[in-house]
Amino acid sequence: MKVLKMTLGLAAVSAMMVSCEQMPKNDTATTATTATAAGTPEIVYVNSDSLLSNYEYFKDVRDRLQGKAQQKEKDLRAQAESFQKEVQRFQQNAAGMSQQQAQATEQRLMQKQQQLQALQQSSGNELVSEESEEMKKIYDRVEEYLKQISQERGYKMVLTYQRGNSAILYGDSTLDITESVVEELNKNYQSEKAETAKPKEEAAAKKK
């Protein structure tokens, strides 16, 4: 089984955009500068690379899925090696078998090979599906928070920036809100983890 390559984040987060109204057709830099001069900028951006590399929830999801993929690969490899040994034993003993026995064994091995291939395919599909579901959760978390701060701070649009793959060729660093976004997302995630851990700790204390 080929190792599942993590594709978490870059595709979905690169599409992340919160828009309260359509972007004006005039130059973006001019719009941002005008808004800044008047107070809070209406258009800001988030560096998606920095967001993903520093968001604890994303890193936990990535580590868990990678661990799951490695375990599945290990299990499939063990089954494949066991199957290979069966094939080798058959090849060694085929000369001493009757034609009927040899045909029956070949049929059984072919069916087992097909089952292994189907298991490999289903395992891969399961991981891809779970990855997609987790990515949606991450996207929803980020989008919800960006909507919240946009309402609080008066942002009209939050863009994403990814070096080498972005429509934003230049952005004033004062419009970069990545650090504050990551800080608050991590703070919220740590609170959620603490709340989730409480019942488990209480249950463990009762058992003692």
UniProtKB/TrEMBL annotation:
Membrane spanning residue stretches: none
Keywords for the protein's UniProt record, in alphabetical order: Coiled coil, Signal
Molecular-function GO term, any one: unfolded protein binding
Annotated GO CC locations: cytosol
Superkingdom of origin organism: Bacteria
GO terms of biological process kind: protein stabilization
Coiled-coil positions: 62-148
InterPro entries xrefs: Chaperone_Skp (IPR005632), Skp_dom_sf (IPR024930)
Signal peptide span: 1-17
Signal found in the keyword field: yes
Family classification: Belongs to the Skp family.
Protein name: Periplasmic chaperone for outer membrane proteins Skp
